[in-house]
Design a protein that fits this description.
Distance between the termini: 30 Å
Number of domains: 1
CATH superfamily: Aldolase class I
CATH architecture: Alpha-Beta Barrel
Number of helices: 7
Number of strands: 7
Bound molecules: iron/sulfur cluster
CATH class: Alpha Beta
CATH topology: TIM Barrel
Amino acid sequence: MSNETVMGVGWEFPTRVSINITRRCNLRCKHCLSSSGLADSNELTTTELFGLVDQLREAGKPTLAIGGGEPLMRKDLFAVMARAKRNGVPVSVVTNGIFVNERIAKRMNDLELTSITVSVDGLKQNHELVRGVGSFEKTIRGIEILREWIVTAKLNIRVTVNKRNIGECPELIRLAERLGVHSIRLTPTLPLGRALKNDYLLLSQDRVRAIPNGLPYGHREH
Ligand code: SF4
């Protein structure tokens, strides 16, 4: 878990607390910086997560940013997010989108999340090079379902840029526009986790600097 602390005049408060809620994942992405796949034996229990959410209420209600692994693989994810909502703690979540169906999208919408970010790592061939065969259509379908159901949360795409997909950034921006998401964020593959074993994906520093980092564009109002 990590947090950011903003210094005010004579006081300070956390604005965002990030937690990788599980290391369990349905994918085994070649660039995964946490080498996710199987759950860790010491992951927080539901009770401990409830305790964390209650502490956040006392700590000024910073945004709880939930990542993984794949958060949707935790059966208690919605219970934790619901508790956060009851506590007035805003929640954002990052997912690979594969498990998203109408029921899940509706539940997410009911929780009035702040943002939902889905990872897309290239057009079909390059996305599936790192994320596995058959993953592209499922992820895009997940985004389409979210786009249909989500009213309040900002729906974002995150691209982890690598040597193979860097030339596709303009097309990915057009894809994001076509899908009607709120923003697309481009970040380089980091030399961590499984990316170390797949270093053919890593960009040179010059090419990292060439990425229009964090390029956000908002084009729809929620
Ligand atoms: S990058 Fe995300 S989706 Fe891929 S293995 Fe890691 S946690 Fe899972």
